Amino acid sequence: MGLWDAVKGAARQIGNDISESRELEQLVNSSKKKILRRLSLPQLKKLCERFGGGPSPWREDFQGRYRVHLTSDHYEAYAMDLITLRTLHEWAENNKVRVDDIKREYFEERERITVRYHPERNVRIKNSNDELFQNVIDAIHQFHPSRKYPNEQGYHIELQGWLKREFTGAEMEHQTGSSRPDIVIDRCIAIEVKGPTRYQDLTTIADKCNRYLQYYDNLVFVLFEVEVYDRRYAEWLKGIEGQYPNVKIVRK
Question: Which of 26, 51, 179, 195 could form a disulfide with 224 if both were Cys (CB 3.0 to 4.6 A apart)?
Answer without folding.
Answer: 195
